Amino acid sequence: MRALALVLAFLIGLGTPALADDVATAQSVIRAQEQAFIRDDAAAAYSHAAPEIRQIFPQADIFMQMVRQGYAPVYRHKSFEFGEARSANGRIAQRVHIVDDNGEAWEAMYTLEQQPDGSLKITGCSLLESGTGGMTLTPSPAVAVPASAAAP
Description:
The protein has 5 helices and 5 strands. It has helices at 2-38, 42-46, 51-56, 60-70, 72-75, and strands spanning 77-88, 91-100, 105-114, 120-130, 136-138. It has a 5-stranded antiparallel β-sheet. β1 (77-88) and β2 (91-100) form a beta hairpin.
């Protein structure tokens, strides 16, 4: 019985590094895009967008304009910290805690999907304002990503 428990614990443990690796990779993609926003590097920021996002915003400058208008806390902020993440079937949902330049607290939910070349690309970002007693959804064009790209 102990041997079976040890084998099960070992097999379960094998799945954990893959999840940790997926989440670490997703966080590095999100962080790279965040840093590109800070540098106003439209091409670099756009390079992390999934094909579905690129169809909606066919040029890097159009994409950056959408981010500036619809995602101001993501574009400019005082803090940007990763929270809970989930991974399933090549898709990852990553929560990010943000404090914007005005000191307002926000929650972002990034979704990423593994691409045919094995890379992870950002398929969407939902932004919620928090810290005022309730949560208010901030609508944005990127939420209109097709359901096939949605996170689990």
